[in-house]
From TrEMBL:
Signal peptide positions on this chain: none
Keywords attached to this entry: Hydrolase, Protease, Serine protease, Signal
Region (Disordered): 53-94, 183-203
Domain called Peptidase S9 prolyl oligopeptidase catalytic: residue spans: 455-660
Protein name per UniProt: S9 family peptidase
Biased composition (Basic and acidic residues): 83-94, 190-203
Biased composition (Polar residues): 62-71
Amino acid sequence: MSTFDDLDAFVATRRCAGLALSPDGTRLVTTVSELSADGKKYGTALWEIDPQGTGAPRRLTRSTTGESSAAFTPDGDLLFTSRRADPTAEKPTEDRTALWLLPAAGGEARPVVERPDGVSGFAVARDAGTLTVVTPKPVVGDAEEQREAREKEGVSARLHTHFPVRFWDHDLGPGRAHLQRCAPPDPADPEARYGEPEHVAPHGDERLAGSAISPDGRTVAVVVDVPDPADPASWRRRLELHTGSDDGSGTVVVGDEPGADHEAPVISPDGRWLLWVRERHPRPGRGTAHTLRARSLADGTERDVLPEEAHQVRGVTAAPGGDVVYVVVDEAGHGPVLRVSITDGSVTRLTASGAYTDVVAARDGSALYALRSAVDAPPTPVRLDPEAADQEPTALRGVTTIDPLPGTLTEVHATAADGTALRAWLVLPGGASAATPAPLVLWIHGGPLSSWNAWSWRWNPWLMAARGWAVLLPDPRLSTGYGQAFLDPATGAWGELPYTDLMTTTDAALARDDVDATRVAAMGGSFGGYMANWIAGHTDRFAAIVTHASIWHLDGFVGTTDASFHWRREWGDPLDERERYDAHSPHRHVRSIATPMLVIHGDKDYRVPISEGLRLWYDLQRSGVESQFLYFPDENHWVLAPGDAKLWYRTVWAFLDHHVLERPYERPALV
């Protein structure tokens, strides 16, 4: 049995996320998720990786509640967040997250920032050590008093006066996130904590959505969600610079305009540049577009670093010196790191393959570090030359260990009817040949602004390959990494070009002699689930269809999702654009569905609410379609609990084995 034959082994594999590099460049820290002793959940801990790639990784922290969000102070101490109890407290508690410090010189970690409702995020000024912390605060009253009063009265209700009320998988309120600034502790006192917090933002009904702090700690870039006057239930993102006190004086608005969000700020290590992403809002026939902007903090002049429509920007890291920024983008099934000049816009692609995240730069400019993954490689820490083009990185010794993949990865290319080039990844199981062709599952990604370009622990095709399946991972229209012309025509028209692209790419895969054209299934989640539902109503070429967290009734989805205003921009007002909604809603084609369908949905999914899955299931049942409904009362848009994840795969396999491979149906155990 290997990592991919054995679901227990797969879910128990250690997984890393995030990187932090010490000021002297000798310590690289990542957060590692690991299965708990009882196998029912994941815990997190901080591990140290040798930047030179020779030393073995070593665990730094250990607690029942876990640790995450590592960052270094200018003195080399390690900061992290944790819900662990403070053993020195009069009444130790694990009911809220605090900020902890692990001294570089050795010794036990100690809490250095504690707030009544916890700490949900923080950042450290590179030179001064000043801290910004994100902490919930009630709309009215004192945080501690309100929390205790609600608990005493058994109150869980929230009163909202502005949309939205939910986000992904959690309810918003009764407090709002606020950004506070704290002076660094006295270095002469080994038990000192950070100074009393000074309020930074927001100052009204705005909602905090991101921030960055300058090296000297004096300037803070803040992103706030502000009401959009064009739509009372809509928000857009405004970027501000805060240099004054907690009354809001000294605030400069950098970016605020109808039809765009200004977000993801970064302040360069030399304090000269503010960089951020301007995201143009979508509308029917015109997709989202990113512009990377830069503002001189000396004179306020601004420029485009990467112009609109050039790339979908996924990450920005400023170089330690000079006018250079490292940008991660999507590109044709990869996620490369680009070296971009802030002053003249010249671009060098540093990486030849793979998808990169969490790029950090050594202070002396000698190296970059990042997590690299690919469809056929889990996230692994690597070292990059900061200037060499199209390089393969140096892999460091990480914590993730997997067995050899049970197959191979290749590409499939096709041409759409309008001449557009299409591509997909194809996972082939070991032993697939003309003599023993493999059954195929078409697996459609979510998003839709996404791409099959990285490893996924949640949607892993190699688990399918281990069971003998070939897996087609296509990037149809609306996928990122292929230019703006690839996005625009399908924006607000999901049921047209994306569907024909998927069928064209499937035809190309089935033309291979090592793929069995007589045994084919389709599956997808979120946007991929929408497409699975659309496919079900427009063709009977697939023997079975699996649809997870899927959109079924387009108008119902847009009105109940956690960010309705985003989708209303793309699709238009359902009262005024009725024809568009009707033309692209999968539910209108239920009477054409003949393919057996497995519907999967989590009750805590606020992005695609459970109402979509419930109505889909009801419509299939009343229409006499052979169907099953796998319901997760405690899961969200994804299925994260280890036991539930294993059950998800076993249920999918049982369904596909029966309907595609014509094996006797075996109901999965425990359901």
